[in-house]
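Sanity check

After download, print the first record. It should look like this:
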Amino acid sequence: MNYFSILLIVGHLYLDSSLVSGVLYEITVNSFEPDPNIDAAFLTMGTVRVTRKNRNRFAITGDFELNQNWGDENEVSFDIKSRNGKGPSIYGGKASFCEFLNMENSIIDAFRKASNLPPVGTCPLLKGKYAINEFEVQEEDLPPVMVKDQYVVSARMTGSNGKQVVAYKIKLSVK
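Expected structure tokens:
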């Protein structure tokens, strides 16, 4: 890509009124969708759901049960796409479950604080019941400039045999 093309793209983004920044974010969690083919040997979803806190605040709340320990033999992959999941991937990654659970990340830290997950550094995650209490994505967890759009966050976990055992999608809007 030449310098002129880059300049045109940057100019378009600067003038595009669909960009938001700072305190102008309005984040709405539209849905939490567990994959209907979750392997019951790994996870029972329980009561996990999206709840509305007020006009512009939504939270994920509920309980779930791990039916076996989750550790390094499991692999987690995640992907964030714009345009309601039809756009290109804007962020993604892959890691062992323990690396994922213990990575430094404000969203994972907030999830841990809103749940009864064990402290950072604990792995494997032992089988048993866990609860999430009003987990919210906060504005400061997002990049400083983000395009207004419909986003889909997809995550999946595979077992030691490489077979998908857990997957879900979170759909959210940034206005």
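If your output differs, re-run the checksum step. Summary of this record's structure: The first strand starts at residue 19 and ends at 21.
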